[in-house]
Amino acid sequence: MEEDTVKRIGIIGVGEIGRAIVTGLHHGGGASPEVFLSPRGARMAAELSERYEGVEVCADNQEVVDRSELVILAVRRQDWHGALAGVRVGGDRIVVNVMAGVGNDDLRRTLGTNAPLVRAIPLPTIRERRSVTVVHPSHPEVDSFFARMGGALPVADEAAFNVLSALTGTLTTHYAYLATLASWAADHGIAPDDADRYVRGLFQGVGRSLGDETRSLDRLAADHETPNGNNERIRTTWFDPANVEALTKALDDLLADLA
Ligand SMILES: NC(=O)C1=CN([C@@H]2O[C@H](COP(=O)(O)OP(=O)(O)OC[C@H]3O[C@@H](n4cnc5c(N)ncnc54)[C@H](OP(=O)(O)O)[C@@H]3O)[C@@H](O)[C@H]2O)C=CC1
C-alpha cells in the first residue's frame, strides 16, 4: 500500500461515519496513521481504541485538534456549534468537514481560522475503502487521503458539491424500496427469509452490472429489458412521469435546503 502522507488524524464526532472512517483506515492491514478521537460517543470511541492499535480517545475536542494534522468534523448538523465552541484551530491544520448542510464559510466564521477547510462526503462503504468521496475544494493531502480510501472526486464549487450531496440522500430510500419488494413477496406467501435472500441476490447482480462503466445507465436499463416484457411494464406503469417528477421535486427541495 502507498504510504500515508498524513500521519495523525483527528475525528470530532465518533458516530456511524466516524467509525466507518477508522475501520477503513485499518482495512486490509498495513501501516495506518495514528487516530485521535473525541470523547463523545464514548462507547464507540472506547471500542475503536480497544480494537485498533494507534487509536486513542482524547480528553476533549481541543486535544483532538492539537494532536492531529488533519481533523475530520463528523458531528450532526445540530451539534456542530456546541462541538466547536471555544476550539482553536491553528492555520497549520487541515480541516475536513463531512457535516451535511454545513458550508465552509459558516464554519470558517465560527472557527476563526485560516486553516484549509475542505468539505467531503464519505459514504459508509469507506469502511472497506470503497467510497468515492466527493471533496471541495481540492486539496492535495485530502484528495490523496480519500484516494487511498476508495477514490476522491474533487468538484469545482459548492453548488456542484451540494448536487452530489443531495444524491446521497437517496440511499436509504433504495434500501426501503428493496424491503418493500421483499415484504410484498412475503405477503404473497413466500417465506420472509427466502424473499429477503432473493431480493438481495437480485440487486447484488445489479450492483455488479453497475461496475461495468463501458455501458451508460440508460444502456444498462435497456439491456435488462425485453420489449413489452415484465421490466418494461413495471418501469412504465409505476416509475411513470408523475413518479419521476415527484422524485425530481424531492431532490430539488433537498438541494434548496442544502444550499
Ligand atoms: N452516516 C453517514 O453515512 C454519513 C454522515 N455524514 C455526516 O456526518 C455527521 C455525523 O453523522 P453520523 O455519523 O451518521 O451521526 P451519529 O449520530 O452516528 O454520530 C455523531 C456523533 O457525534 C457525537 N457528538 C455530539 N456532540 C458532540 C460534541 N459536542 N463533541 C464531539 N462529539 C459529539 C455524538 O455523540 P453522542 O452519541 O454522545 O451524542 C455521536 O457519537 C453528520 O453531520 C452527517 O451529515 C456524512 C456522510 C455520510
From TrEMBL:
**InterPro entries, from UniProt?**
NAD(P)-bd_dom_sf (IPR036291), P5C_Rdtase_cat_N (IPR028939), Pyrroline-COOH_reductase (IPR000304)
What sequence ranges are listed for the domain Pyrroline-5-carboxylate reductase catalytic N-terminal? Answer: 8-101
Superkingdom, natural source: Bacteria
Q: Which family does it belong to?
A: Belongs to the pyrroline-5-carboxylate reductase family.
Protein name per its UniProtKB record: NAD(P)-binding domain-containing protein
Species for this entry: Streptomyces milbemycinicus
Q: Please spell out the taxonomic lineage of the organism that makes this protein.
A: Bacteria, Bacillati, Actinomycetota, Actinomycetes, Kitasatosporales
